[in-house]
Design goal:
It holds the Pfam family ABC_tran. The chain has about 270 residues and is an alpha/beta fold. It is built from 7 helices and 12 strands. A 6-stranded mixed sheet has the order 6-7-8-3-9-10, with helices on both faces. Strands 2-1-4-5 form a 4-stranded antiparallel sheet, with no helix packed on it. About 40% of the residues are buried. Adenosine-5'-triphosphate (ATP) binds next to helix 1. Adenosine-5'-triphosphate binds next to helix 1.
Length: about 270
């Protein structure tokens, strides 16, 4: 099967600062890759490169065989965002409908096609019950469902999620990750999932991309999230402790003692 995402020899510098170099990553349909790493290690920048919003210093990125470019219809994007608190008049269904507009350049779906697509995805993410409510009135978990629906309504081949678990309680974190997992299984959607909280995604992760200190590691959870690998990347002792089904990471410079989430069970 052809990869959905192919990153070849990718290097990104901002001025003289190297975020990562010679990064090679191919992602197959239906694969879920967790993108982890310390603040400022370049996780969002990687997503911006894939979205065609940031040029690489060196290397190439192709999505479904096409060079990365803005407005790719093959990509759905859940941007890093906190609560929608402004008094926006948009209802949940309006926000989801915007996900159909970006790629269509003014060619509306015929007849009731647009409404059917929006209703169908709202149903899939469990948001039908609040489809007509203003988004600012929704809880954090409800808003996250709507954002994911917006990213999925155009039926992308690749879903990019930038910290979708931020500020969600453990139940909503579980629900959000389960939702993304269901969709990639049903539609074979490939997923890059940027998160600081590994435990809610641990049951679903195929591979991990870890960014730190201008370096990266790619592999299974066991290959990357271990004391030896992270100590080598951070050049200081880092402990990865498995307690039951959860991973605790301690000793990452600049982070609290427990780096990854310490509340949600991965079961
Ligand atoms: N366009 C830019 N020009 C220069 N520096 C930038 C630019 N965009 C981001 N940076 C810097 O590059 C570093 C990486 O930023 P990025 O947002 O990719 O990190 P991140 O891993 O997503 O961080 P976090 O976990 O805090 O969200 C940061 O120090 C940021 O300030």
């Amino acid at each position: 099967m052809a990869p959905i995402l192919a990153i070849r020899d990718a290097t990104l510098y901002y001025g003289s600062r190297r975020l990562w170099a010679q990064l090679n990553l191919t992602v197959e349909p239906g694969e879920l890759v967790a993108v982890l790493g310390a603040n400022g290690s370049g996780k969002t920048s990687l997503l911006r490169v894939i979205l065609g919003q940031q040029r690489l210093t060196n290397g190439t990125v192709t999505i479904a065989g096409h060079s990365a470019h803005r407005g790719s219809k093959d990509i759905g994007y859940v941007p890093q965002q906190r609560r929608i608190d402004t008094l926006t008049p948009l209802r949940a269904r309006d926000l989801v409908g915007l996900g159909l507009d970006g790629h269509r350049w003014g060619l509306p779906l015929p007849g009731g096609g647009r409404r059917r697509r929006v209703d169908a995805i709202l149903g899939e993410v469990g948001a039908s019950g609040f489809a007509n409510r203003p988004v600012w009135l929704l809880s954090g978990g409800e808003q996250q469902r709507v954002r994911i629906a917006q990213a999925l309504v155009s039926e992308p081949k690749l879903l990019l999620c930038d910290e979708p678990l931020l500020a969600l309680d453990p139940h909503s974190q579980q629900a959000t990750t389960a939702l993304v997992d269901e969709r990639r299984r049903a539609e074979n959607t490939a997923v890059l999932f940027v998160t600081h909280e590994i435990n809610p995604v641990l049951p679903y992760v195929d591979r991990v991309l870890y960014l730190a200190g201008g370096q990266f590691r790619i592999g299974s959870v066991a290959e990357v999230l271990n004391s030896e690998t992270l100590s080598e990347m951070y050049q200081t002792p880092v402990d990865v402790i498995r307690t039951g089904e959860r991973l605790l990471v301690a000793g990452v410079p600049g982070q609290s003692a427990v780096h990854h989430d310490d509340v949600a069970s991965a079961s």
